[in-house]
Design a protein that fits this description.
Order of helices and strands of chain A: HHHHEEHHHHHHHHHHH
Number of helices of chain A: 15
Structural class of chain A: mainly alpha
Family (chains A, B): Belongs to the FPP/GGPP synthase family.
Radius of gyration of chain A: 19 Å
EC number (chains A, B): 2.5.1.10
Catalytic activity (chains A, B): isopentenyl diphosphate + (2E)-geranyl diphosphate = (2E,6E)-farnesyl diphosphate + diphosphate
Strand content of chain A: under 5%
CATH topology of chain A: Farnesyl Diphosphate Synthase
Distance between the termini of chain A: 24 Å
Keywords (chains A, B): Isoprene biosynthesis, Magnesium, Metal-binding, Transferase
Oligomer: homodimer
Number of domains of chain A: 1
Largest interface: A-B, 51 and 51 residues
InterPro entries (chains A, B): Isoprenoid_synthase_dom_sf, Polyprenyl_synt, Polyprenyl_synt_CS, Prenyl_diphosphate_synthase
Chain lengths: ~300, ~300
């Protein structure tokens, strides 16, 4: 099995689940439902949910039990994009080749749609049918920590403050770890938690997620410099205009490419060690290929 | 015991708890911590937490067990004010006689501080030491429902959309029920839940909360018309300028005053019935006076 097949197997079902959960959360307020759906069903690659499922499958768990945490994670990822795109923050008019939420619905609705997705994420987890109370509580605590003022939001705040000063590469790595890494690490932690994976497996998978998250952000920074607008679906050289601290702006493009390659090699190393140790059920061996292929998202 | 004494007994301890919870959630990002603290510790009357505690006390429960849900509720109430005050929504420069968050810290920080308070509310509940997993899960589900896209946020969205049309009084009541009522009802539900109150007691208290919430909003609408700026701490006649649907704008000031009196009488009726039935431990009888005095907040 490769990532493509894995995606084909799960994404249709998961998208249906996501849309029906949205309907459960917002049956009555039409404008809010429309704005939430526009961003939630707006062509995201669903990398984070897929990562929950692949981790869960590799650990020998039941992928369906990962639907609720994966959906909560996708709700939160989506809210963060809506708020990040607002004029007061990144001021982006396009995302994934479509107008951003506030360009379509206005700022007030975009703010509320983001707030609504964030709140509904926790409702969904608390009300999920397939998890024990103890699993729910641990998932809610982990997700709130990853997305909250010590995780993603701290990274966003650091990012805004960083615009006024030049960061070192170590400082930038910390911003990235919180802003992008925390939710990607949650995906893997959620997969391990739902599968009741042992600590050794979980530890290695978390290390993999750390590299993947970091690589994801370096890749994102580089994309803005080396790819063209058709490929990225959003305005390029936007970071440079905003005077953002990025891997290429601190290290130069060539060194940033090398750093990305290092990160990818380290991530591969984690998976190779797990495979060499046979740290998962033998009939899930093919899922290691699926996980390897997540790194294709961040290659340039 | 009256409300004043009850407040004196609990508010110092609760404010310390609130501030230390904020410290737990945001140890590292200074600007975020400052903006969150500015609004959270900014002189709110803490009506919702007090209502959790008074309900809990009347039911014979341990008030300290109400600290976590009350703090989560206050975090969420505070976030909703920060986002509501934003230029894109209500565009308020003052709140409780002080500059609003975005006037002090800028819009980007205000948006993120609100997001952070909302997220941290759920972290706090999930990590609370004094509640069972089952209580935590039910509280998280209730709070997310009350604050989310079927509760408070739907009400905010209805409110924005209502600016462009004239609502009937029934439609306005529904907006209020969601926008203001839902969180006030949560306060009472949380008190009942933590105290393991019986369904009859909880039902009557919830009816009381419904009237209190509605009265609170009618009072708020009336304040904008009949009180002056020094008393309200914010700009008056703001609603009329924004062309908002309010009780006085639909019914006229006099009828709105009468409606408020009706609501207060109904709320008193709920408490009187509970008292007549002796539906709570005898040595908590004095707490019924405390609850009666919540209605003083909404008298004009």
């Amino acid at each position: 099995m490769n990532l493509n097949e894995f995606q084909t197997e799960w994404m249709g079902k998961f998208d249906d689940y996501l849309y029906s959960e949205l309907g459960n959360c917002v049956p009555m307020q039409e404008s809010l439902h429309e704005a939430m759906a526009y961003s939630l069903m707006g062509g995201g690659k669903r990398i984070r949910p897929l990562l929950v499922f692949a981790t869960l499958a590799l650990a020998g768990g039941d992928v369906k039990k990962g639907f609720a945490p994966a959906a909560a994670l996708e709700f939160i990822h989506t809210y963060s994009l809506i708020h990040d795109d607002l004029p007061a923050i990144d001021n982006d008019d396009y995302r994934r080749g479509r107008l951003t939420s506030h360009k379509v619905y206005g700022e007030a609705t975009a703010i509320l749609a983001g707030d609504a997705l964030l709140t509904a994420a926790f409702e969904m987890l608390a009300e999920s049918q397939n998890l024990s109370d103890s699993q729910k509580i641990r998932l809610i605590a982990l997700l709130a920590k990853a997305a909250g003022p010590n995780g993603m939001i701290a990274g966003q705040m650091d990012d805004i403050e960083g615009e006024e000063k030049k960061l070192t590469i170590e400082e930038l790595m910390q911003v990235h770890e919180k802003k992008t890494g925390a939710l990607i690490e949650f995906a893997v932690s959620a997969g391990c938690l739902v599968a009741d994976a042992d600590p050794h497996f979980s530890g290695k998978m978390q290390a993999f997620a750390k590299y993947l998250g970091l690589g994801y952000q370096i890749h994102n920074d580089l994309k803005d410099v080396v790819l063209d607008e058709n490929e990225t679906g959003k305005k390029i050289h936007h970071d440079a205009e905003m005077n953002k601290n990025t891997y290429p702006s601190i290290l130069g493009t060539k060194e940033a490419m090398l750093a990305l390659n290092d990160v990818i090699r380290n991530a591969e190393g984690c998976l190779d060690e797990l495979a060499a140790e046979g740290a998962f059920p033998a009939d899930e061996r093919d899922k290691i290929i699926v996980l390897h292929q997540f790194l294709d998202y961040i290659r340039i």
